[in-house]
């Protein structure tokens, strides 16, 4: 039997209960079974993001479709500030550069993050309608202090939109208390379901901006999806375009398992596991891409190498039964790889990963303190 531990940045290892929940051959999008799981999923998404009064959306696609759907809330000629800590922060820029809006980007060096006061300084210079933030930058593992940023800028901007693709389900998220207008994610990251759905919670203030004057395309226009979501919230079926029916059964099961674990417990588990990963990396003498400890995330760790080729490390790790993720930040090309530690990852996965990584690096000739990584993991997990 071939066994593999998936320590990638998404999709993650999927619990078999989640996978089996989608094994249904006779369920339609108007059926009571689907209506029930859709209603539950929308309700739990609000709970997960601490957004009880927000409208939840589950739409086909993924994190990028959720991001692009924000065009529904924007009019021609409005001013958008993108706060980017890496490749996926830059994705906001790539999305909005295709629309008739005025765009400005604050961009951090690889491994760093834009400070709250830097964002405040920028929004005070001229009128900004929309600010986009990335909670955890998947390309580097850097976490932005979302609550602090929003507190600084809330009185100066109309909408604050947060990409929580690599945070929701593993980091503290309080969309309503923090006064974020939109928090979005995807099904395949820390939630631990298969890819295929974009998930959002949207404030009533943001919903008021939905209009025929928006710059949105047809398919991702939230005006088309809003009556569908409202109907499911009421336990009724509705249609605009076909939802990923079987995926949503799996998503609902993932939410059920998350609820059973407890959201706070789940965040705590991610904190412990991520601390152990970092302890292992630093224990063997390697550097982490994220430069500031306060910006370490619970979900992704970038690992810098001094000598060997990261692609060789990834190839050999797969032969050891563990799949990691390549580095994608262009400024660090050929210098690092990433470890994903989210979803259903457990303590034994961490030990296996660091143990195999030490062996692989030793064989490839990377100078490390062999054995010290595993020791550091054990000490962290037992403390």
Automatic annotation (TrEMBL):
PANTHER family according to UniProt: ALANINE--GLYOXYLATE AMINOTRANSFERASE 1, AMINOTRANSFERASE CLASS V
Molecular function in Gene Ontology: alanine-glyoxylate transaminase activity; L-serine-pyruvate transaminase activity
Cofactors named for this entry: pyridoxal 5'-phosphate
Organism classification: Archaea, Thermoproteota, Thermoprotei, Sulfolobales, Sulfolobaceae
GO biological process: glycine biosynthetic process, by transamination of glyoxylate
Boundaries of every Aminotransferase class V domain copy: 27-329
Keyword Transferase in annotation: yes
Keyword Transferase: yes
InterPro entries: Aminotrans_V_dom (IPR000192), PyrdxlP-dep_Trfase (IPR015424), PyrdxlP-dep_Trfase_major (IPR015421), PyrdxlP-dep_Trfase_small (IPR015422), SP_NH2Trfase/AEP_transaminase (IPR024169)
Keyword line: Aminotransferase, Pyridoxal phosphate, Transferase
Stated name of the protein: Septum site-determining protein
Membership in a protein family: Belongs to the class-V pyridoxal-phosphate-dependent aminotransferase family.
């Amino acid at each position: 039997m071939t066994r593999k531990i998936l320590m990638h940045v998404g999709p993650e290892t999927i619990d078999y209960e989640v996978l089996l929940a989608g094994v249904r051959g006779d369920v339609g999008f108007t059926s009571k079974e689907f209506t029930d799981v859709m209603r539950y999923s929308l309700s739990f998404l609000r709970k997960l993001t601490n957004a009880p009064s927000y409208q939840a959306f589950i739409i086909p696609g993924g994190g990028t479709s959720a991001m692009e759907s924000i065009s529904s809330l924007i009019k021609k000629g409005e001013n958008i500030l993108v706060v980017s800590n890496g490749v996926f922060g830059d994705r906001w820029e790539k999305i909005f550069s295709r629309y008739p809006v005025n765009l400005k980007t604050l961009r951090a060096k690889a491994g760093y993050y834009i400070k709250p006061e830097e964002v405040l300084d920028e929004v005070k210079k001229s009128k900004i309608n929309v600010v986009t933030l990335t909670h955890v930058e998947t390309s580097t593992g850097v976490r932005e202090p979302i609550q602090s940023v929003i507190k600084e800028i809330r009185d100066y901007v109309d909408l604050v939109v947060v990409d929580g693709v690599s945070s929701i389900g593993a980091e503290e998220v309080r969309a309503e208390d923090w006064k974020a207008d939109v928090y979005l994610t995807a099904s395949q990251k820390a939630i631990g379901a298969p890819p295929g759905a974009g998930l959002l919670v949207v404030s009533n203030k943001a919903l008021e901006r939905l209009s025929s004057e928006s710059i949105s395309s047809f398919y991702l226009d939230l005006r088309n999806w809003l009556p569908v979501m409202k109907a499911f919230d009421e336990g009724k079926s509705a249609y605009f375009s076909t939802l990923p029916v079987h995926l949503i059964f799996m998503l609902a099961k993932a939410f059920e398992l998350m609820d059973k674990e407890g959201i706070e417990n789940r965040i705590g588990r991610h904190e412990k596991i991520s601390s152990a990963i970092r302890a292992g990396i630093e224990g063997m003498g390697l550097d982490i891409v994220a430069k500031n400890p306060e910006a370490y995330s619970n979900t992704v760790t970038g690992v810098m190498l001094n000598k060997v080729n990261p692609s060789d490390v990834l190839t050999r790790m797969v032969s050891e039964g563990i799949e990691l993720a390549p580095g994608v930040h262009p400024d660090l090309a050929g210098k690092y790889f990433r470890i994903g530690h989210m979803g259903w990852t457990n303590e034994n996965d961490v030990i296996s990963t660091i143990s195999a990584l030490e062996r692989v690096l030793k064989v490839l000739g990377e100078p490390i303190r062999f054995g010290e990584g595993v020791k550091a993991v054990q000490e962290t997990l037992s403390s």
